[in-house]
Amino acid sequence: MVQPDHTHAPRPVPSPYTGRQEIDLDVVREMLSHFTYSDHEEAQELILSALQEINEHFGWVSFEAAEIVADHLGTSATRVFAILTFYADFRTTPRGHHHMLLCHGMSCYVMGSSKLVQKVRDEYGIGDGDTTPDNQLSVQVANFCLGVCDRSPVVKIDDEYYGHVDPENLTDLVNRAIAGREAMQASEVNHG
Amino acid sequence: MVSVKPGEHLTKLTSKDDYIAFREQAHQKWETLWNGDATVVSVGVGSSSIAKGALEVLEQAHQVGGNAIIREVSGNGAFWMEPWIEVKRPGVDPILYGPLTVDDVAGVIAGERNDLAVGVRGANPVGEIRPLNEHHYFKHQIQLLTRNAGLIEPDSIEDAIARGAYDGYFKVLFEMSQEEAIAEVTTAQVRGRGGGGFPAGIKWESGRKARNNPKFIVCNSHEGEPNVYKDRHLHECDPHRILEGILIACIACGAERGYNYIGGEYPLGIRRFRKAVADAERIGLIGKDVLGTGKNVAMRVRTGGGAYVCGEASALMYSIMGVRGQPRTKPPRSVEEGLWKRPTVANNTETLANVPDIIVRGGEWYASLGTENSKGTKLMTMQGPSKLSGVVEVEMGVTMRHLLDDIYGGMREGYTFKGIQTGGASAGPITEDAFDRPIDFDSLSDIHGMLGSGGWVLFDEGVCAVDMARYLTAFSRYESCSKCVPCRLGNPALVEILDRIRFGRGSLEDLALIRRTSKYIIELSLCGLGQVAPVPLVAFLDAYEEEFRQHIVDGVCKCGVCPISADSRQAVFTEVAAD
Fold first, then answer.
1. Residue ranges of chain A with pLDDT lower than 70?
2. Is the same domain home to B197 and B222?
3. What ipTM describes this predicted complex?
């Protein structure tokens, strides 16, 4: 497995997903040092943005990270956790080594994404927000639109999009995507 | 914070004359770009084309482009031609090619791949290639908000200024009083584009009159609906237009700070908007003493966390203030007591994006477009099995028949039309009966339809009405903020009834129960989300009651979607949709 990189550089968009990550609190502190504020009102406005950045970088936000955010922005950990559990984007448990975003926007629904959701449940025994017991794959069913509607139903595995997905071939697709990703990561370790 | 750096070459402008000189420079740079001897290659990069490999195409263009100028522009709303490249050769109008792959890039730039050409950006054909505006997808559009889409580099403030950005802001700063600016917006009769349709001029006027200081402007770019991406498109293709709209609103209402609250779903749009703000700050269009006028304007970008309810104005403001986004009772309205208990004017992105043109060309010009009660143009998106898909901008009052058949090219082969879902998750479907009605804010309301934010979802005979109603109700259940009881408990109850029907255990009384429960939710809920949450279900029940009855009486789902028909009447109850 690739070691999580410890430098926090601005990421290109979309951010490359580098697999399951433990949260390094020093990286969190470094990220937060960019969040400066002039008064308490502004500090409160920054809570969401700070959490979002941590969530994007690590795939989830731990309680310890939330505490650091609270300390930095002068609020309570309870308040930060209340936000984490309200907004759908945030995860409070780590994702799998690979993450699948299953678009369940209306376009994908019309073109059959419910079958994909069911297939994932049958095949891997997991639903929205779950991770397989071996930590290989986690799934998020997107209640918004991924914006690739002409190719619906769409699935995003790590940071690759796959269009016109047929439930019959979903497992194949996942295996191929994971294999491809791992080959890429292996070559990054060797050459990079 | 992921910092976006402003352009290094930009310097602060401190007076009116400075700005005029800068604008002149930008114009010249633009002219030289298009009339010079260099080959100009533009790659359309937006979130939809990135998914199809536009970044690789851009990379390849850099590799094989030679001396050509390579530009990263935005998508142009036509998803069906992505990824695309536009090549401008000296002395010839630019030609667009797409959809293409990395392997085609070299050939396209060399001019050997006319088979991939879609059209010419210009009035005259080049050889066999016809002008793009003759393509049916573009021919019927009126591009005001999206006229820079795929044309300017969204990250370049000079490109935007060369195409007329900040002209309206300039006018409001130097040539107009606050009252005059608001009068133009009122004359234009521009109505809120987020779905509500409240006249923006009236909102601004009450914002200006509010006596409490400071005041704020909030741009609502939170697009949580599962069926629309117009604001994402606007942010990606022309962030400066949105920014200008916010700045004009700030000056006109006397607000000292503007906010743009962007949903977290579109990182590219957020990055481009942040870049626009950074550049505008750098050249002094935002900040203290703007261009020597003594006026102060600040700008903050805030991002959402993926809660649909935050599209509601009071919830949105709570979300900006860093708490759970739960709506509150009104009054006081947000224009009296909004963000940080200050007067706050909240407008939709598309509404604000209309403002610069209204200021420059006048409210009367704007009011000449559209229908009696709905002026201007509207961004619309079509999803589902239509031949083409993407974002279009059309005049208010087009008919659905025109939109579907002439612009989007009708249904795809092998699909039979069943209906079109309107207004996202807050209205019902329309069928072919309503195809000839001119679409505006009010024209569909008597059949539970709604223009809303302009997202249409086409569905075919393979989609079961009960299942789709369940999907829409489950969406509202998932997105309910759970503050008030009718919405928190009512929506799960509706989903439960629908599941009963889907699993073949429904009774005819359930139909009456649906209507009764829906009525309570609609009448008793606190905010807009709850008040419309059961509307799609009721509308589906009205339009496709026969299908509901078939499920209950005959135990048949003719589409074969519901578990009732898949040999699973004994199946263990499992949740299937997004919970």
1. 1-20, 188-192
2. yes
3. 0.90
